[in-house]
Design brief:
The structure holds two protein chains of two kinds. By secondary structure, chain A is mainly β. Helix content of chain A is 0%, strand content 50%. Chain B is built from no helices and eleven strands. Classes of the chains: A mainly beta, B mainly beta. The interface between A and B is medium-sized, with 27 and 25 residues.
């Protein structure tokens, strides 16, 4: 059983650019959530995908968007990057409807916006 | 009402001692309370979790104590080891909704 994987590990972009981050779910998991973790803070929920549709969203603007593919892998896209978007972006997978709904996190992508 | 308040912000414990981290919540609809351990440069790893139906759960050296009436829960790390040095996050969740994280506690265990 493979865990959650994310790519790339690190990324440097300039303000105004666009970025795509990728995530592969843990085997057997059908739900993917994305979180943003600023330095020294707890992760903040961005959105969640189930059956290729967004089924929950946190307090993030529309320039944060995502996709989930039939194999349950996922992308996070951020347009018009701002300096405050610099953070660790975490993907978490889970199995919808199971008791507890434990989220299992990947290692994250460190995004730096200059 | 969606916040989870965590304390202390940092904790220094001697090897072999007990580390205690506390969290409080307001929303009584939360039904799942996990603790995550995070090492620098890594994603959070699920450590232990509890549901409101029980007041305590123990896994090895890690114990969650849950007080439903006070809306508080805590993580106890017995016989703390230098390898336990990490940042610990409490979290809360309603069924199939997102995790709400606390602000984290940086634990340092000295030999």
């Amino acid at each position: 059983e493979t865990g959650v994987t994310q790519s790339p590990t690190h990324l440097i972009k300039t303000r105004g650019q666009q970025v795509t981050l990728r995530c592969s779910s843990q085997s057997g998991h059908n739900t993917v959530s994305w979180y943003q973790q600023a330095l020294g803070q707890g992760p903040q929920f961005i959105f969640q995908y189930y059956r290729e549709e967004e089924n929950g969203r946190g307090n993030f603007p529309p320039r944060f968007s995502g996709l989930q593919f039939p194999n349950y892998s996922s992308e996070l896209n951020v347009n018009a990057l701002e300096l405050d978007d610099s953070a660790l972006y975490l993907c978490a997978s889970s199995l919808q409807g199971t008791s507890g709904g434990a989220r299992f996190f990947g290692p994250g992508t460190r995004l730096t916006v200059l | 009402q969606q916040q989870v308040k965590q304390s202390p912000q940092s904790l220094i414990v001697q090897k072999g001692g007990i580390s205690i981290i506390n969290c409080a919540y307001e929303n009584t609809a939360f039904d799942y309370f996990p603790w995550y351990q995070q090492f620098p440069g890594k994603g959070p790893a699920l450590l232990i979790a509890i549901r409101p139906a029980v007041s305590e759960k123990k896994e090895g050296r890690f114990t969650i104590s849950f007080n439903k009436s006070a809306k508080q829960f805590s993580l106890h790390i017995m016989d703390s080891q230098p390898g336990d040095s990490a940042t610990y996050f409490c979290a809360a969740k309603m069924t199939d909704l997102e995790l709400i994280f606390g602000t984290g506690t940086r634990l340092q265990v000295f030999p």
